[in-house]
Specification:
By secondary structure, the protein is of the alpha+beta class. It has helices spanning 4-17, 35-41, 46-58, 82-92, 99-112, 130-137, 141-153, 177-196, 209-221, 238-248, 258-263, 266-280, 318-328; strands at 33-34, 62-65, 77-80, 157-160, 172-175, 198-203, 226-227, 249-256, 290-294, 309-311, 357-366, 375-383, 387-397, 415-418, 422-424, 433-443, 448-461, 464-467, 474-476, 482-483.
Length: 484
């Protein structure tokens, strides 16, 4: 959490970086600004401006000049340094490369690659003027000055500064050995990025692994680089490798089969992560690189409702599905020699998502002659997923009771469960009480799952209380309440 001084410093630095004398001021952000001028632009007291300026100067984001008779300011005038300009761009770039960083890279590459003739033996050894850089790159003097100063502070260039070079702040500049090395490092990094870039992240339900494997084989045979689980993850750390692949994929394609809609959490999570990651970085704000195949129009809801999908007749033929993806990428599908045609009949999986807990209630029963001091609780619920040994357990928490874990009559299968009714007496001296129901169960993945759901009570006076809300039949989803 930023302190008040840090917030004030950012406000002051933004004003300095944007300071200009006229609408078309080419020296914007390079002017010295006096204390009273700064105070007129930021809604801060002189004391807070003094603290902000001192903080910025220690961080090398500004340079200041003092003088007599500047009270109540501790300085006469200030202006931002190149680091100050860079810092504001960094704060406003949302994780993307800043204009100054891009300019500096272009200038450094130009210096390293500068040659006077073809096959010039002195390539990259020339001393280059500011005007030559402007003519070559089309950058105005201000941006050239900022780039060169940033590179010089990093040790990537050396420069010669003399009088009479305006509007440039240097006479000549040339790449240092460290600059030469940095350009080579950038080239190697870009090569690795190109080699690791994925064309398609193919998201799907694990129940469709065989279908996905066939589609992957067809796409890769057509020169399309694909990431698809489980084949693309030979070792552990699934979450890390999936996240990295999503960050390096050009497109995501979801097989929105009935299995994916009814029994997959990961497919929707991967789609949402990819969309959010690229949208947040300004790479694809409209979600054009987010795609999915669907056969049932009723699946077009939520996030999928406003993203471009491709309708298919069915998910039976992997060749037809791979053809749709390849065509969208502008590629011709090449079927491997010896390919054996096969079909995947529609899944008979139940439409109900397997993670759902249906709960009827809880039922809050009031004792005869209820005076706000005694409550009977009962609840029935249904789990639609296949459970493992261990079955389902539940208990009520709080309100002066902590029931033992109660085993249901049915285990190792989906079923309906009726909880034993309990009577509780909330503490009337507390300002607020909470009714808490906790259920846990084991599914086919062998892991424990469950959730807690809470309903508040409020004092009614005279040592009594009442429910803040009545709750009837409800379907508990993993997104409701506290879930694990």
């Amino acid at each position: 959490m930023a302190t008040e001084i840090e917030k004030d410093a950012v406000d002051v630095l933004r004003v300095l970086v944007r300071w200009k004398k006229s609408a078309n001021d080419e020296e914007q952000g390079n002017h010295y600004v006096h204390g009273p001028e700064l105070a007129a632009e930021v809604d801060l007291t002189p004391q807070r401006i003094n603290l902000a300026v001192a903080f910025l100067e220690r961080s090398d984001f500004i340079e200041s000049h003092g003088g007599m008779g500047t009270a109540p300011f501790n300085f006469q005038m200030v202006r931002p340094t190149v680091r100050g300009h860079s810092e504001i761009q960094r704060l406003e770039a949302n994780g993307q490369p800043t204009e100054m960083a891009r300019d500096a890279t272009s200038v450094l590459r130009t210096l390293v690659e500068w040659e006077e003739t073809e096959d010039d033996p002195h390539k990259g050894e020339y001393r280059v003027s500011g005007k030559e850089l402007t003519d070559k790159l089309g950058l105005p003097p201000r941006r050239v000055n900022h780039s060169v100063a940033l590179l010089e502070s990093s040790g990537y260039v050396s420069w010669l500064r003399t009088m009479g070079t305006a509007p440039y702040e240097f006479h000549e500049v040339w790449a240092s050995p460290e600059g030469q090395l940095e350009v080579q490092r950038l080239a190697e990094q870009e090569k690795r990025d190109r080699e690791t870039q994925l064309d398609v992240f193919l998201s799907h339900s694990s129940l469709d692994d065989n279908l996905c494997k066939d589609i992957t084989t067809l796409l890769e045979n057509s020169g399309i680089r694909v990431f698809a689980t489980p084949a693309s993850i030979p070792t552990g750390k699934w979450e890390e490798q999936i996240e990295e692949a999503l960050q390096h994929a050009s497109t995501v394609w979801v097989l929105l089969t009935p299995n994916a809609m009814s029994q997959s959490i990961w497919a929707h999570h991967e789609f949402g992560y990819f969309y959010g990651f690229r949208h947040g970085r300004g790479i694809d704000p409209r979600g054009d690189s987010c795609r999915f195949l669907y056969s049932d129009p009723s699946h077009l809801r939520g996030l999928y409702g406003h993203i471009k999908g491709t309708g298919v007749k069915s998910f039976e033929d992997p060749v037809a599905l791979a053809q749709e993806i390849a065509a969208a990428l502008g590629k011709d599908l090449i079927i491997p020699s010896g390919w054996t045609a096969r079909l995947y009949p529609a899944s008979t999986a139940p439409a109900q998502p397997p993670w759902t807990v249906r709960a009827g209630g809880p039922e809050f029963r009031l004792s005869p002659g209820f005076n706000g001091r005694e409550l009977k609780l009962g609840c029935s619920f249904q789990i639609t997923a296949q459970t493992q040994p261990g079955g389902v357990e539940y208990r009520w928490l709080g309100l002066g009771t902590d029931t033992d874990w109660a085993k249901p009559m049915k285990e190792n299968q989906p079923g309906k469960y009726q909880m034993k009714e309990i009577t509780v007496n909330p503490d009337p001296n507390l300002e607020e009480n909470v009714v808490t129901l906790e259920i846990r169960f084991w599914l086919e993945d062998g892991k424990q799952h469950g959730g807690r759901w809470k309903w508040p009570l409020k004092p009614r006076g005279n040592g009594a209380w009442e429910l803040k809300q009545e709750l009837g039949s409800h379907v508990f989803q993993p997104r409701d309440g506290d879930w694990w």
